[in-house]
Amino acid sequence: MVGLAVTRDGLPVRSWVFSGQTNDMTTVAKVKADLRGWRLGRCVFVGDAGMNSEENRRSLALGNGKYILASRMRAGDEVSTEVLSRAGRYQEVRDNLRVKEVIVGDGERRQRYVVCHNPSEEERQRKHRDKLVAELEVELDSLQQRTGKGHSKRACELRVSARYGKYLRETATGKLLLDRGAIADAQRYDGKWVITSNDDTLNAEDLALGYKQLLRVEQCWRQLKSGLHMRPVFHYRPWRIQAHVSISVLALLLERIAEIRAQDSWRNLCAKLQKIQVVEYDRGEARVQQTTELRDEHRELLQLLRVAPAPRLHAVTGVPAPDA
Predict the structure, then answer these.
(1) Shortest CA distance to 316 belongs to which of 291, 290, 294?
(2) Are residues 66 and 45 in the same domain?
(3) Do both 135 and 24 map to the same domain?
(4) Does residue 324 lie in a domain region?
(5) Do 126 and 184 touch, CB atoms closer than 8 A?
(6) Does one domain contain both 202 and 246?
(7) Residue 259 to residue 264: CA distance in whole angstroms
(8) Within the chain, where are the H helices?
C-alpha cells in the first residue's frame, strides 16, 4: 500500500510504503508524525468519504490537526436529514461551482459542513437518470409480469440490477412498478457533494477548492499506475519495493515540474519532444550521428523547461586515417 503527500500544485514531496494489512488510521498517524518533523507552516489532511468517521476525525484533530473530509450523503444521518435540506443561498465560486455553508449543533458538538454544487454535473446526472427511467418504462411495458411469489427471469434481473433496481418497487401482489419516490429523492443529490472540516480559518470557498485538490492526488495515482507503470511490482524484498516506488515518485515529480513550467499535459509534451530525434546516415566512408533540426516550437518548449538543446553533431565514425 502506497501513500503520497503532494503540494497544492500536485508536486509529490514524500511517499510511504505500507504492508497491505495496515489499518488506514495507522497510516494517518505515521504520515502525521513524519510530516510534523518537517516543520511545515500549514498542513491539511484531505480525504474522501471512506475516511470520514467519528473516530478518524478525532484522531486527525489531535495535536491541532486540520482536515477536510467528504461526507456520505445517503447514510441517513444529519447530512441527509439536515444539511441537504437546510435552506440558504449558494455563493458563486467559479464556473460550475457554488458553495453553501451549514452549521449543525452548538458548542463541542458543533459540526461545520459545506454543500458544493456543480450545475453542469447536475444537468448531466438528470439527463442520465431520465434516460434510465425511459428505458425502464419500456422494459416494464414489455414485461410479462406474474402475480404472486413467482417472477420471470427478466423481472428478477431488473430487481437485482445496479442500473435499474434502485428505481423499482414491488407491490403486494408482486408486480414491479417505477418507484417515483426514489426518483424524486435521487434528484436531491444531483451535482452535489458535502464536505466537513474543523479548520475555521478557511472559508467555504477555500474548503471547496481545497477538497478539489484531492483530484490532483487522484491524477498522480493514475499517472503512477498507467503512465509510469508502477504496477505490477515483482519484488518481494521490502527495500526493493521501497526503491521501486521511490523511483516512480521521482519520475512523477519530473513530469509535474515539466507540466507546471510548460503549462501543458505530459502527454502533449511527450508528443512534441518525440519529434526531436538523432539520425544516422553515411556520408562517403563516414557515419554521422546528428540531431534533427529544431523547430521554433521545440526551442520555445525547451526554453520553458529550462533544458539546453541537444548538440547538433554527436559523432562521426569510420573516417579513414590520413596517410603518414
Answers:
(1) 290
(2) yes
(3) no
(4) no
(5) no
(6) yes
(7) 5
(8) 24-36, 54-61, 78, 119-142, 153-160, 180-187, 204-222, 238-262, 266-273, 296-305
Identity at 87, one-letter amino acid code: A
Nearby residues of 22 by Cβ (< 8 Å), 6 or more positions away: 1
Structural domain span for residue 144: 120-187
Assess if residue 268 is contained within a domain: no
Considering the domain architecture, whether residues 258 and 291 belong to the same structural domain is answered as no
Q: 180 with 205, same domain?
A: no
Beta carbons within 8 Å of 133's beta carbon, 6+ residues apart: 167, 178, 183
Q: What DSSP letter does each residue of 284-312 carry, written as one string? A: TTEEEEEEPPPPHHHHHHHHHHT-PPPPS
Q: Do 153 and 248 lie in a common domain? A: no
Is 20 within a domain? Answer: yes
Rounded to 5 degrees, what are φ and ψ at 276? -90, 110
What is the residue-level pLDDT of the chain in tens, covering all 324 positions? 888 888 777 788 888 888 877 776 677 777 777 877 776 667 788 888 877 888 888 878 877 788 888 888 887 788 888 888 888 889 888 778 899 999 888 877 788 999 999 999 999 999 999 999 999 888 888 876 666 566 678 888 888 888 888 898 888 877 888 899 999 988 888 999 899 998 888 888 888 888 877 777 777 777 787 777 877 778 888 888 888 888 888 888 998 899 899 999 888 998 999 999 999 988 888 899 999 988 999 999 999 999 999 898 988 887 665 664
Q: Work out whether strand 111-117 and strand 192-197 pair parallel, antiparallel, or are unpaired.
A: antiparallel
Number of domains in the chain: 3
Which DSSP symbol is given to 227? I
Query: Are 14 and 93 found together in one domain?
Result: yes
**209/169 Cα distance (integer angstroms):** 39
Following CA atoms 86, 104, 205, 71 in sequence, which dihedral angle do they give, to the nearest 10 degrees? Answer: -90
Residue 211's alpha-carbon distances to 41, 89, 191, 283, 284, in angstroms, are: 19, 21, 15, 60, 64
